[in-house]
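USER:
I would value a second opinion on how I read folds in token form. Give me a protein, with the fold worked out from its sequence. Write it directly below this note and I will take it from there.

ASSISTANT:
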Amino acid sequence: MSRPAAGGTSAPAAGAGHGRRAATGPRQAPVTVLVAHPSAELYGSDRMLEESVTGLVEEGLDVLVALPERGPLVPRLEAAGARVVVLPVPVVRKSALRPSGALRLVRTALRGVLAGGSLLRGTRPAVLYVSTQVVPLWPVLGRLFGVPVVAHVHEAESAAPRLLQRALAAPLLLSRRLLVNSAFADEVLAAALPRLSGRSVVVPNGVAGPPAPPSPPDGSPRVRLLYVGRLSERKGVLVAVAAAAELVRRGEDVHLDLVGDVYEGHDGFAARLDAALADPLLAGRTTRHGFRREVWPHLAACDVLLVPSLLPEPFGNTAVEGVLAGRPVVASASGGLPEALSGCRSARLVRPGDPSALAHGVQDVLADRAGTARQALDDAALLAARHDPARYRAAVAAAARAAAGSGTGAPATSGAAA
């Protein structure tokens, strides 16, 4: 996608969003919050950024969001009442581990120091809210310019090299408030950098449910399996495909729908996925839908949602969305997924990376298809209360207000946000 020149802005005045997003509570002198985020897409952390921005606007704050590029997230942030600026600030990707990627990261970092510093000087925000660990320059700039930082971690890279984990965690020491989206993510941070132990507050992701109350599946004989998310190695999409073939081999009548895209430039993985989908057992039994902004129609049409992540997930938005849609979820028993699905009787947790285990989890659901469907509707009500977006937005706004008004920057104590 095209990238505008650094410093380009586009937005309505703060508070000009739709009715439900308008600022609530008594009006005070404008307090500016600068929000930094690494992406303008609409995947998990991007949607959480939208909720965070909404909460800040609802609090009556003037919100300016800095992104490295334009994308589909931008109009949604603008509709929420935020302004958006595009800056060439470095984002730490896996490509940075290669020599060419590292050089590119250094060059971007030099430009980012100048652009970010200029933005901080020009806007003089009361607080800097840094979303995710992969924009580590922002906490450093915040400290250099005397702006209190709220860091919100949505990652848990427990499988990454320890040196990389420590490098990404170190800038978090400069924050006045540290939020994490799960107890698992908190544990990963503390293991990478023990000095962070006890500094964070767990704020579970706020996940909005479907536009209409969930209803049971249609009960058709063919079982619709669904995978939603990046089509990537670490997300386990190949495991989902192999499990679908295994289910057919076991005599189950299944169809697998894939909603999501392969990362741009990952041609090798795309070829492997195409080869897996060409399995004769799966002829006429798979459909690729590409990326979809709204997943609810696909969730409503499925019987079982698969979340077969190979590497530990920090939280598991997709799994929670599946439950909110009233669908049984079969997910990897790793990372934050067991935490996100805690108490859900319709969910099944299986060994990561094992197609046979994933297929067995689906068959366990199908063994009492009607009973599990009823449990899934009960689970939807449970998670709707637990992951109410209003609670999430209020917790983020409270952290920003506290950081803006704190003179000493004492770290918050560890625990779950109310």
Q: What stands out?
A: The two ends are 39 Å apart (CA to CA).
